[in-house]
Each structure stands twice: as C-alpha cells, then as structure tokens.
Amino acid sequence: MSLPARLFRCLSFSLAILAPAAALAEPSAIYLVRHGEKASVGQDPELTPQGQARARAIATILSRSGITAVFSTPTQRTRQTAQPLAQRIGLEVQLYDPRAPKALIDKVKTLSGPVLVVGHSNTLPELVRLFGGAPGADIGDDEYDRLYQLTPAAGGAVRTILLTSPSTP
Questions:
Q1: Are 94 and 72 a contacting pair, CB within 8 Å?
Q2: Which InterPro entries match (predicted)?
C-alpha cells in the first residue's frame, strides 16, 4: 500500500473514531428565556416579587431537564432570573456579553446536554435565530413568559417549541 493510501486510510479511521465525539459536543436542547418582571426604576433594576416568583417557576420547570450550563447577561435582573435554577442544580451562572452574541453561540455549541440562556426582550429573538430557531413575533416590553426550547432535528435543522413560564401574582 502506498504512503498516500495508508495516510488516507489512517486519517479516515481517525475521523470515524472522532466523529461521534464531535457530534456529542453540541447541546441536546437550548432553553432561552427573558428575565422576569423588573422594577421600573434605576439603571440596573432588580426583579419584582412577581419576577422572583417567575424565576423560581423557571427553576422548577427546568430542574429535571438535565441542564449542564446556565448563561446570563451581567444585569441584576437576568442573573436573578438564572440564579434559582443554577443554585438548585449546583451550577455557577456564566456571564455573557449581550453585544457579542456570536461568542455565546460559539461557546454553547461546544457543550453537551441542555443549556439555559437568560437574556432580554431585544436580544432573545436574535439569539434564537443564531442558534437556528424560529423566534416568532417580537417580544413586547410587558411580556415575560416566553420560554424557547430549541432542539436539533433531522438534517441539521433546529426545532423550536415555544413554552410559557408561569408566575404567581
């Protein structure tokens, strides 16, 4: 067997072994949610009691989904939305820059297992698109209950399921 043929065969064998591992390095589901209801004053407002209740509801909904990473923008309201789930499942909230969505996408795509991303009404639709999903209508300023579930589908497509997160008054 010639050297190029042996090299090609060795390379093909190596790729066949590595391909399943590469396939595993993509999240099985990506959940995206806007922060909960926020106070209407201040540069970086905290969650209201209703927003805190919504954050706890999201934690309850996703606590058994096998989340392996939780991402949030640096604002108080997004971190406070992400924290109940992260605390419940023993993870640290990882911060991302909402002005650099591609960096978040690249990082998340190296992970395996389900992932939660908490963002804002003006950033979530773009994130959903960048992950390959269908964001639907714009998110209204008074809309806090939209929860996206993005899952890989056949042929590299992404299936988008739009859920809602309950809150208590």
A1: yes
A2: His_Pase_superF_clade-1 (IPR013078), His_PPase_superfam (IPR029033), PGM_Phosphatase (IPR050275)
pLDDT at site 169: 60
How far is 11 from 81, CA to CA, in rounded Å?
Answer: 46
Q: Is there a contact between 30 and 68 (Cβ–Cβ < 8 Å)?
A: no
Contact by Cβ (8 Å): 135, 101? no
| Residue among 61, 50, 59 at smallest CA distance from 168 | 50
Residue 120 pLDDT: 97
pTM (two decimals): 0.84
Is the pLDDT at 13 greater than 50, yes or no?
Answer: no
Dmax (CA) for the chain in angstroms is 75
Tokens of 6: 């042996």
Q: Assign residue 132 a region (left: φ > 0; alpha: ψ between -120 and 50; beta: otherwise).
A: left
